[in-house]
């Protein structure tokens, strides 16, 4: 397997292997029988980054083998969008024989949308001057003459030159409504637009009967917050990166949404504010006590949640959580540590193709719902940021459920209030003992896989 060849002929075999592996990993929690949903096997990545290799008069994109660290020439990249592949050829042709553009160029980043907009960033080990700007402007105009809707950006140490703008606007059809998302260069965006649409529609479905307000941590450009706004009275979201906050504010206005509030602060800071540990000027005019958040959505960085935020998250009746590793999820799901949990057959939307690893997500619930047991997938590629998502879909509510104390890890029959499809795991914890002392009071957390 190379960056220029996706082994699509191995798709079915690799999928079957990964499904079996996931089932084995989750065996202690649930007898999961997944249902597979297909998605495109190529041209799914909307962004990509390449180093540039200067070989005499030649110039080409390269990637590095993860095992041997050797260089691999990349003239086409079938994992990326068709537009990125078109731009890769056009950029090499436009830069190769132009000294001002080629000299000390070491990397090119591509960001594209389903609406065929693109930003191309050229990274240099030199100071960018007026000669570079003129050459870049000429290249941009030549690309546009070919029908490519592209913006160019030059980057060097402490330098960023935007010829026009540093953003593009994505338009996604989500549950019958077009959502507009401004995507800023060098900021996080969902790399797979097709999977992003599925995630947004799933999140809408699983929260369609929600009550109260929604809290989202690490909201980025408002990807989930804005789509979910229609299912909640109000949405309160936090994000630390200034460009992402600015994009989220634009997206709120562009989508004519009036019930979303974005706060620029880290999750750790928000936890301190919620717990009354500190006061923040950024929260002036925002009364956190007025929000009745019964649902929390968390898509944290790879470092996960800090311990205090973990504790805060556990207090919410409904938890939607995106994580990045199935091994981690099975050992310590989502970095959330509820005192008691049950497991039912769950819906897993996964990307178990082309790679032995990838990002995953999962949804946690308190004792309020069951799940549909479906498995979804989209492509992942080991050589370049494999991406995927585990997630859940609710079916019906469960009322007046009580968790009782028992031996840790012992698998028991479903108790009163649970769906017939639900399996419950018990553990000896203070919360479980408290539950046993308060019959009839809903408590504990059920995880649905």
From TrEMBL:
Please list the reactions this protein catalyses. Answer: uridine(54) in tRNA + S-adenosyl-L-methionine = 5-methyluridine(54) in tRNA + S-adenosyl-L-homocysteine + H(+); uridine(341) in tmRNA + S-adenosyl-L-methionine = 5-methyluridine(341) in tmRNA + S-adenosyl-L-homocysteine + H(+)
**Gene designation per UniProt:** trmA
What does this protein do, in the record's words?
A: Dual-specificity methyltransferase that catalyzes the formation of 5-methyluridine at position 54 (m5U54) in all tRNAs, and that of position 341 (m5U341) in tmRNA (transfer-mRNA).
Q: Name the active site residues.
A: 324
Q: Which GO terms describe its molecular function?
A: rRNA binding; tRNA (uracil(54)-C5)-methyltransferase activity, S-adenosyl methionine-dependent; tRNA binding
- Identify the SUPFAM superfamilies for this entry: S-adenosyl-L-methionine-dependent methyltransferases
Which terms under GO biological process does the entry name? Answer: tRNA methylation
Superkingdom of the organism of origin: Bacteria
What is the name listed in the Swiss-Prot or TrEMBL entry for this protein? tRNA/tmRNA (uracil-C(5))-methyltransferase
HAMAP family named among the record's database cross-references: RNA_methyltr_TrmA (MF_01011)
């Amino acid at each position: 397997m190379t960056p220029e060849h996706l082994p699509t002929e191995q798709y079915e075999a690799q999928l079957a292997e990964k499904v079996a592996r996931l089932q084995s990993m989750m065996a202690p929690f649930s007898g999961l029988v997944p249902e597979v949903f297909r998605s495109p096997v190529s041209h799914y990545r909307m962004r990509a980054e390449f180093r540039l290799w200067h070989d005499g008069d030649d110039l080409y994109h390269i990637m590095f083998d993860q095992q041997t660290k050797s260089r691999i020439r990349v003239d086409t990249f079938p994992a990326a969008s068709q537009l990125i592949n078109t731009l890769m050829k056009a950029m090499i042709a436009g830069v190769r024989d132009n000294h001002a553009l080629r000299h000390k160029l070491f990397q090119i980043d591509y960001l594209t949308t389903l609406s065929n907009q693109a930003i191309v960033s050229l990274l240099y080990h030199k100071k960018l001057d007026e000669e570079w700007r003129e050459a870049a402007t000429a290249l941009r105009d030549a690309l546009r003459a070919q029908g490519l809707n592209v913006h160019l950006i030059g980057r060097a140490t402490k330098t960023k030159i935007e010829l026009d703008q540093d953003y593009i606007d994505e338009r996604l059809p989500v549950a019958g409504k077009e959502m507009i998302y401004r995507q800023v260069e060098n900021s996080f965006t969902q790399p797979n637009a097709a999977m992003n649409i599925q995630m947004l529609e799933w999140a809408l479905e699983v929260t369609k009967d929600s009550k109260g307000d929604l809290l989202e941590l690490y909201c980025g450009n408002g990807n989930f917050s804005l789509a979910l706004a229609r299912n909640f009275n109000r949405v309160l979201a936090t994000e630390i990166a200034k460009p992402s906050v600015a994009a989220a504010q634009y997206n709120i206005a562009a989508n004519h949404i009036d019930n979303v509030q974005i706060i620029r602060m880290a999750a750790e800071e928000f936890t301190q504010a919620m717990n009354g540990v500190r006061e923040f000027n950024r929260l002036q005019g925002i009364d956190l006590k007025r929000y009745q958040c019964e649902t929390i959505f968390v898509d944290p960085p790879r470092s996960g949640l800090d311990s205090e935020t973990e504790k805060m998250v556990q207090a919410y009746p409904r938890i939607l959580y995106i994580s990045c590793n199935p091994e981690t999820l099975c050992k310590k799901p989502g970095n959330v540590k509820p005192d008691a949990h049950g497991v039912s057959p769950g819906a897993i939307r996964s990307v178990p193709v082309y790679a032995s690893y990838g990002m995953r997500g999962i949804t946690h619930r308190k004792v309020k719902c069951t799940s549909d047991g479906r498995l979804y997938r989209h492509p992942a590629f080991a050589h370049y940021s494999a991406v995927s998502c585990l997630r859940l879909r609710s079916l019906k509510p469960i009322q007046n459920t009580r968790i009782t104390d028992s031996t840790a890890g012992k698998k028991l029959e479903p108790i009163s209030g649970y769906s017939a499809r639900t399996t419950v795991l018990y553990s000896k914890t203070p919360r479980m003992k408290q539950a046993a002392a308060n019959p009839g009071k809903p408590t504990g957390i059920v995880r649905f896989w």
